[in-house]
Amino acid sequence: MDHYDGCQTTPDYPTNFADLDYCLTRDVYDAVHPSVKGSEDANFLNFRQKCLTATKTYKLGTPVPRMVYPDFQRQTWSKVFTRLTELYPIHACTKFNQLFSPFVEACGIDADHIPDIETVSSYLQRRTSFRLRPVSTFIESRDFLAALAFRVFCCSQFIRHDDASFFTSEPDIVHDVLGHAVLLCDPDFAQFSQDMGLASLGASDTILDKISSIYSSTIEAGLCMEGSDIKAFGALLLSGAAELQHVFADQVIGRPLVAKEAGFMPAIDLSKYQDVYYVAESLGDAQHVARVFVNGLTGRLNLKYNPESNVIERLDAKW
After folding, report:
1. Which run of H or of E encompasses 121?
2. C-alpha angle with apex 75: 100 to 57, nearest 5 degrees?
3. Catalytic residue chosen out of the listed positions 175, 193, 217, 243
């Protein structure tokens, strides 16, 4: 772990895979929140415990062990995948739909086959050098964004409880693989995601909140224009059939993406639909607006990731 002692002391941040493994397996990530659907279901909790054990022992740079899913998880996956793939051609952005078919074909994913994280991770590495790292539950913003700096995406192994099939209050493999990993196959989107991560390293809590807000307003809950149509590219929408339908069927508030507003929004509340959804002029515009906003934040460290050594290197400080 490292910190910068320039004009001010900054929070520690991971500089290598071992540091990152430590950050993502801290004891704070061991419990299932009682508000989560299924928190009183013994079978569901037992499987979550198996996922936690696998997460705790995993080390970045090694193959991700294949999970054996019980029937109740398979049934939920089939129901969720089937419904989402009915909605994607109608509501997902063009880039997502272009990437989706080759993604699921190469990774062997369909209604009867739950994603294997190692297979998806290997495909991602070939496409954009991103990889998946199994995690056990919702990861705090500082750790989650830090992983992006290494081109590592935190991926849950469990599938949401059946009672939360079409809307869940925490990330699961549906959210992380379908909602995020598909678009991470695009080089521009992958670079954009890594840029958000690098900007977060060593950031003060105030700066981190702004980065998290613009990330959430775009990558998590973002919408974009395609001609006269609004399409979804945010992972919350691409992994939650109920919220995706809500956005396009109900009278939701869609505001033009303006960084000075989106970057100061409160943290996303995953327990409910969002109050506001931001609409960018295009998928590329969403990335541009967020990147310009983050680059303009003062008090950030100037860091880069060395993909040969998997180490974060400090260049100089930006004050």
Report:
1. helix 117-128
2. 75
3. 175
- Averaged in consecutive runs of 10 residues, what is the pLDDT profile of the chain (319 residues)? 56 96 92 80 95 95 96 98 98 98 98 98 98 94 97 97 94 97 98 97 95 96 97 98 93 89 88 93 97 88 94 72
Determine whether 175 is an active site residue.
Answer: yes
Q: How far apart are CA 21 and CA 14, in angstroms?
A: 9
* Residue owning tokens 């006269």: 228
Residue of 121, 156, 161, 220 with catalytic role = 220
| 40 catalytic residue (yes or no) | no
Residues 240, 47: Cα–Cα separation, whole Å: 22
Active site residue 309: no
Query: Catalytic residue at 91?
Result: no
CA separation for the pair 224, 174 (Å, rounded): 22
User: Residue 230: beta bridge partners?
Assistant: 225
CA gap 40, 35 in Å, rounded: 10
Q: How far is residue 315's CA from residue 296's CA, in Å, rounded to a whole number?
A: 18
Cα–Cα distance between 10 and 123 in angstroms, integer?
Answer: 35
Please report how many Cα atoms fall inside a 13 Å half-sphere around the Cα of residue 190, on the Cβ side.
19
Catalytic residue from among 91, 180, 217, 243? 180
Question: What pLDDT, on a 0 to 100 scale, did the predictor assign at position 8?
Answer: 52
pLDDT at residue number 174: 98
Query: Considering Cα of 147, then 281, then 232, then 273, what sign does the dihedral take?
Result: positive
Q: Apex CA 101: angle with CA 287 and CA 156, to 5°?
A: 65
d(CA 110, CA 92) in angstroms, rounded, equals 18
Chain-centroid distance, C-alpha 182: 11
SS3 category, 16: coil
Amino acid at site 265: M
